[in-house]
Automatic annotation (TrEMBL):
Keyword Coiled coil part of the UniProt annotation: yes
Lineage, top ranks: Bacteria, Bacillati, Bacillota, Clostridia, Lachnospirales
The keyword Coiled coil is annotated on this UniProt entry: yes
Protein name: ATPase
Biased amino acid composition, Acidic residues: 197-210
Superkingdom of origin: Bacteria
Region (Disordered): 189-210
Coiled coil: 51-121
Keywords tagged on the record: Coiled coil
Length: 210
């Protein structure tokens, strides 16, 4: 059964696959910022729990080894007890010692096999957990990198468009500068003429009164 973080990664991949390509591009796509951020937000929330879960699996190695050691110790103790019983019960001491040694050797061998098997199982579980966690982080990194690249291209295109508009406006103002200066000069001339006319009218008014 897949974990929630695997499901989220699958949803992100499906969402990216469903996005439309940007005009005149076969590699860049248009994403909905809110949707991708919601998926990434849930991914960030779930990731620590997933890592803790796999860390717990890794930590189980110690428990497996401890259990194996306990079983091995119990086997050795039982073998020693049986060996002592054989020595006590049998009249032929040499045979009793031989049987006791064989029993102890067999128990030691079986205990070592249990320890070796437990160590191998624990290392295999640990390696699988680490590999899965690394693959999961790689998928997350790939999705984040793709999202950052798409956002960078989108905002760069927007800034370039604004700069182009500004360049056109500045160029048009430069072309209009001579005409603007001429218009300002003419307007100033009109104001001077109006002032002289007003002075003449005042003079005529004074003569008429006299």
């Amino acid at each position: 059964m897949s974990s929630r973080i695997e499901q989220i990664i699958g949803e992100i991949e499906e969402y990216v696959d469903s996005c439309k390509f940007q005009p005149l591009s076969t590699t860049k796509i248009v994403v909905n910022k809110e949707e991708i951020e919601e998926l990434l937000r849930e991914l960030r929330l779930k990731t620590p729990d997933e890592i803790k879960r796999y860390q717990k699996i890794i930590n189980n190695k110690d428990a497996i080894l401890e259990d194996a050691q306990t079983k091995a110790d119990a086997l050795i103790a039982d073998a020693q007890a049986r060996a002592q019983e054989l020595v006590t019960q049998h009249e032929i001491m040499q045979k009793a010692y031989a049987q006791a040694n064989d029993t102890i050797n067999a128990a030691n061998k079986q205990a070592q096999e249990i320890l070796d098997s437990a160590t191998q199982d624990a290392n295999s579980i640990r390696l699988s957990a680490i590999t899965y966690t690394d693959d999961m982080m790689a998928n997350i990194g790939s999705v984040l990198n793709t999202t950052l690249e798409d956002a960078g291209v989108k905002y760069k295109t927007f800034i370039d468009s604004l700069q182009s508009c500004l360049d056109v406006v500045n160029h048009n103002r430069q072309e209009l500068a001579p005409q603007t200066a001429q218009a300002a000069a003419i307007t100033g001339s009109y104001h001077d003429n109006d002032g002289a006319k007003d002075d003449d009218d005042d003079l005529l008014d004074d003569l008429g009164e006299n």
